[in-house]
Amino acid sequence: MPENDQAADTESERESEAQDVILIVEDNQEVRTFIRQYLEPDYAVAEAMNGRDGFEKAATAIPDLVICDVMMPELDGYELCHALKNDERTSHIPIILLTAMGGEENKLQGLQTGADDYLTKPFSSKELLARVENLMIAITSTDERFLNRVKEAVEKNLGDEEFSVEDLGREVGMSRVQLHRKLKALTNQSAGEFILSMRLQRAVDLLKQNAGTVAEIAYMIGFNTPNYFAKCFRKQFGCSPSEYKMNHSRETT
Predict the structure, then answer these.
(1) Domain 21-141 -> CATH class
(2) Which of 15, 168, 196, 207 is packed most tightly, with the most Cβ within 10 A?
(3) So what's the pLDDT on residue 11?
């Protein structure tokens, strides 16, 4: 694996959340409170009072779902939806628009700006939860299939030291930017970091199996130099491949 490919994709990590995070963007305090009280048992909830505040919080916290009113100061719901869907950091986040305007044209406008679902006020707590749960289930199922495709593509090419992020993108039908954005959202790893982590995990398996020398294993999993392999391995596991191999051998004898 080329060293500069990994370095180009390295970014600061975001702490993973125990619960899915839903951001409510709504200028009416009563509506925010109503939505929050039904979501909080199952989701972590954040709030924003207008569209501009909502965009800033979404770009910073990267929630799993945004529930957004249409009629708001600063940025209205359509403008916020458009802004989120056209920002690399937030374009993957599903959005439910809330509106008192239930006409077909209003729904179409919301969907055209990238909204994933639409709720017309007044709505019941049951309808709200059903829409949220269905959207989260659909996202999870789609994401699992996507991750399986990515893992299969990397597994198939682990021994190819020239296999790059661009190659992985072609395998799964995405551009480098799209792939990076999706993997960062799902795994908190860039595409380069994801490939590297899979190579290193395979290295652990091969070292445990005593499948070759450290240098041989490095080449088996696509590193172009044993030294770079050792450097990455130590950074990930806190010891050199040789030390890991020796420690495992002692534990099994």
Answers:
(1) alpha beta
(2) 196
(3) 36
